[in-house]
């Protein structure tokens, strides 16, 4: 009904905590949600671990876990297989998120396994309240659209900064890494086209990919280039028919031990954004 536009109602999350604190979600199976599975919004001190989240690969918008304008969140030791992003961090949508101004911060994601036609670890694209101080590590992904996807858009405002992602294994994926400033739609036509997001301090280390069709894409914004993008020890191996290249624009960063050889914007090491001492 949603696909045919005959659904007269919005689809609910399977479980949502709002304006709450000191939450533990543990040892539960979540299955066949109509929309996002677990959605803590405006929450603090949240632990989600040892959960299993299942949805058909063709089910729309069935994100696994979406911390939204929340802080002090730990997501760990879980298996997620859905039709959308496995874990997606959000903080508000365009002018509404900018006005509310509540960031997502201090979030740790570790030891997550899963598959999806979309992203394994996603940040955005709703980032208007700001997203900072994120750590994702020891992630194992298979049959993915994208391994790591950081995404925002014109009109979002806000920021994405101090992101550290390490020890990621990706097998069978369309993209290993995508960082983009032109993804996600708008809630209405009243967003401010001059509200450009700031993306800086993205550190990605020790990523190993097998049968990855496209190594990576980093597309910043002309009026707000992405800065401090650091890649270290990233190896994304493709198949015979893959495009083992990087596509970059409006980005400033450095790289060390990256294969295939990254785009020219990331080929210099040292300088203001040294990758070697990031982790």
TrEMBL record:
Pfam entry (one): Glyco_hydro_28
Transmembrane spans: none
Swiss-Prot/TrEMBL keywords: Glycosidase, Hydrolase
InterPro entries assigned to the protein according to its UniProt record, in alphabetical order: GH28_Enzymes (IPR051801), Glyco_hydro_28 (IPR000743), PbH1 (IPR006626), Pectin_lyas_fold (IPR012334), Pectin_lyase_fold/virulence (IPR011050)
Gene3D superfamilies: Single-stranded right-handed beta-helix, Pectin lyase-like
Superkingdom in the source lineage: Eukaryota
The family this protein is said to belong to: Belongs to the glycosyl hydrolase 28 family.
Name of this chain's protein: Uncharacterized protein
């Amino acid at each position: 009904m949603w696909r045919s536009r005959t659904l007269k109602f919005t689809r609910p999350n399977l479980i949502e905590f709002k304006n709450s604190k000191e939450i533990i979600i543990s040892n539960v199976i979540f299955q066949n949600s109509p929309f996002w599975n677990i959605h803590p919004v405006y929450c603090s001190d949240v632990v989600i671990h040892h959960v299993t989240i299942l949805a058909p690969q063709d089910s729309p918008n069935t994100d696994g876990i979406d911390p939204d304008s929340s802080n002090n969140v730990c997501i760990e030791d879980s298996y997620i297989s859905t039709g959308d992003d496995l874990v997606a961090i959000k903080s508000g949508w365009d002018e509404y998120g900018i006005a509310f101004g509540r960031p997502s911060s201090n979030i740790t994601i570790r030891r997550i396994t899963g598959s999806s036609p979309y992203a394994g670890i996603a940040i955005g694209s709703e980032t208007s309240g700001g997203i900072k101080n994120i750590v994702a590590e020891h992630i194992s992904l298979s049959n993915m659209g994208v391994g790591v996807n950081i995404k925002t858009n014109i009109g979002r405002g806000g920021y994405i900064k101090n992101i550290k992602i390490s020890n990621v294994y990706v097998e069978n994926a369309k993209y290993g890494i995508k960082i983009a400033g032109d993804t996600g739609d708008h809630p209405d036509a009243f967003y401010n086209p001059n509200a450009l997001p700031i993306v800086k301090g993205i550190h990605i280390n020790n990523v190993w990919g097998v049968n990855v069709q496209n190594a990576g894409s980093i597309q910043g914004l002309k009026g707000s280039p992405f800065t401090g993008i650091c890649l270290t020890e990233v190896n994304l191996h493709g198949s015979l028919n893959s495009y083992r290249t990087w596509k970059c624009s409006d980005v400033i960063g450095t790289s060390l031990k990256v294969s295939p050889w990254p785009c020219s914007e990331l080929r210099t090491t040292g300088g203001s954004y040294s990758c070697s001492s990031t982790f």
